[in-house]
Design goal:
Elements: H1 3-12, E1 37-40, E2 47-51, H2 53-61, H3 66-78
Antiparallel strand pairs: 1-2
């Protein structure tokens, strides 16, 4: 993804995460807000969107496994 493509995606997403629709809130050591992470399909390399650190970590910890994520949704729904 080029810098221009990143900026275009950022504008399309309103400078917010593609999952939670919130802007990034994590800070770098410099005090600057961390840029949204480029999320991509690890098999095809296709860019899916820009994610905040929390949502990017969520997908990573779930190993991008839809069944695990759906099971978590089901768990939360049952126990909310």
């Amino acid at each position: 993804m080029t810098s221009q493509q990143y900026l275009e995606k950022l504008i399309t997403q309103n400078n917010c995460c593609a999952i939670c629709n919130k802007p990034e809130h994590r800070l770098l050591k410099t005090g600057d807000i961390k840029p949204l992470s480029v999320d991509h399909n690890h098999t095809t390399g296709e860019v899916r969107g820009l994610l905040c650190n929390d949502c990017n970590s969520l997908l990573g910890f779930a190993k991008e496994n839809v069944e695990i994520l759906q099971s978590a949704i089901n768990y939360l729904t049952r126990n909310w």
